Amino acid sequence: MTSKRRSFTPEFKREAARLVIDTDRSIRAVAEEIGVGEQSLGRWVKIERESRQPTKRRTVEELEAENARLTKELYEARKDNEFLGKAASFFAQKRQDRNGLN
């Protein structure tokens, strides 16, 4: 005999999680009261708490400052790359001169 796995609606899960969050009751007590597993209810509570956290929205000023910083960083990286290319070429030429290849 196989038992069918129970499924719960999103509304039921939210309401069950709210019972824990809003009434400050333990997950164990609410789980026993409504007849669900503690682990399941614990996951629902975690999801509900996360959904209540305000999302951090970045301001235009923050985005502009980051863009300026990244633009400067990219410029410096390109200059460093250009310098390193020239230095590598210079040292490769010196090495060829020493070996009498030129």
From TrEMBL:
Record key words, sorted: Coiled coil
Keyword Coiled coil carried by entry: yes
Protein's recorded name: Transposase
Record keyword tRNA-binding present: no
Coiled coil: 53-80
